[in-house]
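I'm stuck. Please check this protein.
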Amino acid sequence: MTTVYGVQFSPFVRKVLLVLQVKGVPYSNPQVNPMDPPKDFERVSPLGKIPAFEDDKVLLADSAVICDYLEQRYPENPLCPSDLVERARVKWLEKYADTEVVSALGPIFFERVLKPLVLQQMPDEEKISNIMSQSIPSIFDYLNNQLHGKKKFLHGNELTIADIATTTHFINLSYSKIEVDATKWPNLASYLKQMTELPLFKSFIESDQLLYAE
């Protein structure tokens, strides 16, 4: 059985689960809190991070590596173009989401959601305000510019790993009660509305809501 260790609220865990869903691969998802991992967790995640992945062939512990492995092992319903240049473009956008986007949106999610929910602490609204004014504009500008014209997705008209990697972070931003300003970033706002209405993402958002309610 393919196993993904980690909590679905993690955008990187959700990213892997979304890819498995696209590929039609059955999986189990043991809930692992990286701040309180089980005793043998380093067997699958030497750095103690989530997601960690295990199947009948490999143990992996990085979302980009896991998703690339799944793309190669399960080529049906591809999430990356076969063309060299187009593939490089998609992988760059995935990397941008995994580094730049999360560097700004991740701390907001921590402050607005995880702090009150897990740590029973009030969010640092000044920190959030600083991120919104200093880090967010350039990132949103870049993504908005990538969505110029009539492109349906970040890369052409087919869903790719770039869309999954990007949208998963914005799902968490929406849980932080922050929406993309459509007057400043119309392409990005329209794109995210379209993405979150796709059955693939919508089902995960609905299951997230059930977890919140527990």
